[in-house]
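Quick check before the chapter quiz. The format below is the same one you will see on the exam, so make sure you can read both the input and the output lines.
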Amino acid sequence: MKHWSGHFYNEGHNDEIFDKLHEECGVFAVYGHEEAANLCYYGLHALQHRGQESAGICTNTGTAFHHHRGMGLVKEAFTTQHLQQLKGDTAIAHVRYSTSGESKVENAQPLVLKYREGDLAIATNGNIVNAKQLRAKLERDGSIFQTSSDTEVVAHLIARSKCSNIVDAVKEALSHIEGAYAFLFMTKDKLIAALDPGGFRPFSIGKLGEAFIFASETCAFDAIGATYLRDVQPGELIVMDEQGMQSETYMEDKKSICAMEYIYFARPDSDIQQINVHTARKRMGKQLALESFVDADVVTGVPDSSISAAIGFAEQTGIPYELGLVKNRYAGRTFIQPSQELREQGVKMKLSAVRKVVEGKRVVMIDDSIVRGTTSMRIVNMLREAGAKEVHVRITSPPFKNPCFYGIDTPTSKELIASEKTVAEICEAIQADSLHFLSEQSLIKSIGNHPGLEEHGMCLACFNHQYPTEVYQDESESESKQTCCN
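Here is the expected output.
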């Protein structure tokens, strides 16, 4: 593992062969429904793409908490017996992919702790960029940590607060942290939801009958039959209790939603800031076609996130869209293999080319990003081995040049191919006939003109190094704090 800038990059984790980016987590909550645990179970299923490492649910009867956490997928972490034991009409739930902390059940969420006013459960999606500095200070002041998760830092800040009530203690704790986060806090009489001032991660509110639902993506509402109500706003803190819903802005908003949510992370059936992800990705494909038309016989997308863009590219150019690449949904996790030959075989276990579709054809291959370049090269070669005459690669994001500090598991700058090579050099490295990345201007245009998503309201730091907050360099790289542009 490489420890850098407040979180970990796991070299041998999950899709080691597929050098894709990984979102950290997904959160889900229910307030006021007798089937809270079961609803969380189905909600987590819908959010499974946001984390496959562990899953957890904590329920509240009003007098006691019941919780269960387990490693693996949601269906692996929970049995019918587990769900039957999770009593209560309020619950918070979590799926995790670790960028902060080791892969073990102790770091699974929700974290359930004893607080001076009773039980406290916490779940979060995102990353705290100053967690390491806060943790060191708390430890010097006597705090003892039970996990290596950033989320526990917030728990200690709450515990040390001199505020007389949990809402004020949460606000005080959040005032000390920097980064991207969607938090859920639960006590015996309250459910609290909070989004960071930049609104980096999607976070929405829904209703199911008289119950309120909170979720990282709106696709989770569809899974349980809930209706979308509205988005949690950047810098907003919401309290649910017997008095109903109370909302306030606890910190001035800066509007910096992560562009990669639209490009790659979110499910295509989700809406972010009322913009449908599938529709935005189709527009990205159309913009790619306008920027970089190439005469070809067939367009195909790398499943799953690039399918929408490939359809858009095909519609714009008139080149037929075909299913030239097929993903094996039952391949399971791929770990480091003992030989290059077996590593190549691992790729083919996860993805295969449809020979009858690409053989003898000039193929346009649409993908969402190029990280280290190894996966792109292997897919290009896979298409050639299946008989493709030419392979032209089109990417629906600008070159990914800079590491993310806001909850995306990314390599260091030196391991990002776009930070070291020109577009022409990347094209040669992945052995494509041509390569084009979508421009920042076309990306912004593709996502849409919703108020708040203008250029200064979106985080594009991974492309242009314009970080919307301060980030903190790991001591092994630098002793100084890096002040980022804004």
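If your answer matched, good. The chain is about 30% helix and 25% strand.
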